[in-house]
Amino acid sequence: MPVDVFTFYMAHGYLGTLLQHAGYDLSEMKLPLIPVTFGNIETAVSFYAVGWLQGLNAAEHDWHHEKFTTNYALSFKYLDKLFGSYHPGRVPGEATAVVLKAKRPENARASYTALKDATIEDFLIQGQAFDAYAESGAIVNNILGLVKNMKGQNGEIGANVDMYEHSLQTATRARRDGADDETVVCALLHDIGEVLSGTNHGEIPASILRPYISPKNHWVLSNHEVFQAYFYLDKCGGDKDLRDKVKSWQEEGIKEGHEYYDACAEFCEKWDQPSFEVDFGTDSLESFQPLVSAVMSKAPFWWETRTGDEMDCKARLAAGYSLSVRE
User: From CA 137, how far away is CA 100, in angstroms rounded?
Assistant: First the structure.
């Protein structure tokens, strides 16, 4: 190898080693006087920074040193992705959080009395507490409690069955028809708002589940009562074809043939509207708990873009609720 080529790559390799072990992502650091970033320079002088040939950044290589079971390929990240040994590493600040978390007493409490006075340590304490609360299954139990609350008198609406039985029937029909777990959970919870707000009850479960379900299922939950009206509204003096006359939907092209329209119509036709049968033989509420747990354990807003100003504000907020969502 020519001496000058060897010298260049040794120098570049030395610089790259410093960057990978720096503990900081310097790629977005702007250089003085010229409108480029350090990452732009790195890309210009190394084909390792281009496309699928990319090398590991500091966060990824730090994870290698922490676990020694991932991120082996310093220069060729695609090899780790190919062989299943790739990990994105910790997000900025998380390593410090892990150390502080290990030092805190189990029953530590935040010190602030006004939110504006809270410290980083306060929120590390609360993040740990929130994670422990979620891991205990309390959130899932609270959700299932909303279904239990519709049993008997609390869910009596004058039908052949109470809203508890109706909910279990709807979910049972969906599961027996081979619906995916997320859709089955939506079927189970679709009417928990019925005894809280009869006129917009679909938005209540939709809002609760929004971070964990697809935009399509969120839309189906939010609007299923409009589609359900097709089967009864004419008997109440209304227009059963309301679902085809919503002005905002017409403007968005949500009509027969649209993905969300058909999904919602199918949800109501196959599972919701027939689920008032006495002695149907529904599956138990307990049998649905693993499904609810699986859906609620998804990364919040898993379907959202993860970076930049395009990220949904609620998705950004969710990243601050606990330590676990930032792993």
Answer: 25
pLDDT (0 to 100) of residue 320: 63
Phi, psi (rounded to 5 degrees) for 8: -60, -50
Cβ burial, residue 225 (10 Å; 0-12/13-18/19+) = buried
Res. 28: pLDDT tops 90 = no
Residue-range domains of the chain with CATH: 3-83 (no CATH), 94-136+299-326 (no CATH), 139-296 (1.10.3210.10)
How many angstroms separate the Cα of 160 from the Cα of each of 181, 235, 243, 277? Answer: 27, 18, 26, 7
**pLDDT above 70 (res 48):** no
- What type of residue sits at position 161? V
Using alpha carbons only, give the angle 38, 41, 47 rounded to the nearest 5 degrees.
125
**Contact status, residue 227 vs residue 247, Cβ threshold 8 Å:** no
Residues in the chain: 327
pLDDT at position 319 is 64
Of the pLDDT bands very low, low, confident and very high (cuts 50, 70, 90), residue 32 is confident
**Among candidate residues 96, 112, 104, 113, the one with its CA nearest the CA of residue 132:** 104
Instruction: Give the separation between CA 79 and CA 89, rounded to whole angstroms.
Output: 16
pLDDT per residue over 66-124, tens digit each?
777 888 887 778 888 888 888 888 776 666 666 656 666 777 888 999 999 998 788 88
Measured distance CA(299)–CA(318) in Å, rounded = 9
At 30 the three-state DSSP class reads strand
pLDDT in tens, 247-303: 999 999 999 999 999 999 999 999 999 999 999 999 999 999 999 999 998 888 888
> CA–CA separation, 29 vs 39, rounded Å?
8
Mean pLDDT across the chain: 86
- Identity (one letter) of the amino acid at 196? L
